Task: structure prediction
Amino acid sequence: MSFQVKEVKTKPYDGQKPGTSGLRKRVKVFQQEHYTENFVQAIFDAVDLKGKTLVIGGDGRYFSPETVQTILKIGSASGVAKFIIGKDGILSTPAASNIIRKYKADGGILLTASHNPGGPNADFGIKYNVSNGGPAPESVTNKIFEKTKSISSYKVIELPPVDLSKKGFTTYGPSNVEIVDSVSDYLQLLESIFDFPLIKNFLQSHTDSFKVLFDGMHGVTGPYGRAIFVEALGLPESSVQNAQPLPDFGGGHPDPNLTYAHELVERVEREGIHFGAASDGDGDRNMIYGKGAFVTPSDSVAIIADWAAEAIPYFKKGGIKGLARSMPTSAQIDKVAKKKGLECHVVPTGWKFFGNLMDAGRLSICGEESFGTGSDHIREKDGVWAIVAWLNILAYANKQSPNQLVGIKELLEKHYAVYGRSFFSRYDYEEVSAVGAQSLVDAINVHISTGSLASTSHVSKSTGQKFTVADVSNFDYTDPIDGSVSRNQGQIITFDDGSRVVFRLSGTGSQGATVRMYVERYVPAEAGPAELNKDTQEGLKGLIEVALQISNLPEFLGRDKPTVIT
Result:
């Protein structure tokens, strides 16, 4: 049976360049005539998917259902043989990566703007993942961008919409369509990685002394959280909150940090909950927070790496091939790698850089300071994986310590006593003037090219600490697998005591500019508990003052305070 393919004339839109996580803009931008169709067609023009299988999913944000139908219209006209779609168009980013890999699909289109707000006046995004389940590399996203600049038409097959609410098989034009359960394949994956019986036994035997709370932030992971924590691990319904995915995330900002996950933080402190965790809009980020104990993402990945081979079945069986972090992430995981004799890679921000190392068999566990943690089980960061990893480690640690409960705080203190502590914080300045942001970058580049900051000393007014600049540089990365070079991935000011400050323009916002400042100061284990267990902001106060003074950031950005501190 033949189906009529209709060709629709169009013109290019400026600025359809995918960032590290796809194309992100305001919903109203995507709703412009032909805008979404142009970008979707550019994907099919850049990537040959004729006769192949494509996964479609996303975080369920506003404008997702109609975009799924747009992809079916254009994809079918482009010759896609089969679509695998999450029920209701929903698949967390990690679950989509798993489905691409498990069913040997040729790629996937994910409808998400990750941790950015949703709703008619907020953000939307379209991201392409390749056959290994990971984000498209720059060679692919650049090709997509080039196609957007010359597009003159797109092709569609116009048919009634596919009912995304019913699991099972159907067709769209010449293409086969399978609507799959959004959760089951991912739950099976986690059950093959972690010791669920150990975790369940620990939680069931400590119902009063170790309470758990998972916050889905009305993002995609609510159903995953309920399936894992309530159904698989037997916890009460009260252990999961904000578990219904909503197109506008309930009016909240689905970014799991101390600012936006305040509902979790407040309940944990009010009710004395021992283990709290949150995930973001599309499920690839996480925050671990227990009463009086916040785990920085840098510490989180280091602790998972430290315990994995001992506590987690997946790594007990397969071993650890290597560790890695993004450049802005603290060097805490480097200390673990050195002690265990493991290779530790430092890459630019963007999960695709980890994927090459994983595919080459040189990386098992990695993380980014932006609350992204993961391993080689898929090719995306995985928020729920990290949360269950922590529960697995805590269950194991408590099995080794039957007479004294080991919680988040105790695990952190034990880690610092062995490895020392990298005090770390990130200051986000969101939606600032693009001109001011570029002026900040330009000013630091002048210091890099002239060496004008070298050997200069700077004293904190409040603490009296002196910091002497050892080096100022731009971070460039040569991929050890494919030889590709990524330049200007962040500006680094390093001090002679090993402290450092990093400045980056972020590519994850939908408008304006976002400047991130990362501050890190290492304190060795010999400093003792009093120094190691200080509050993060207290441990970094002097360095933060000096960083703001050297960079003149408040003047360039016109901001006295950051939007978010993590």
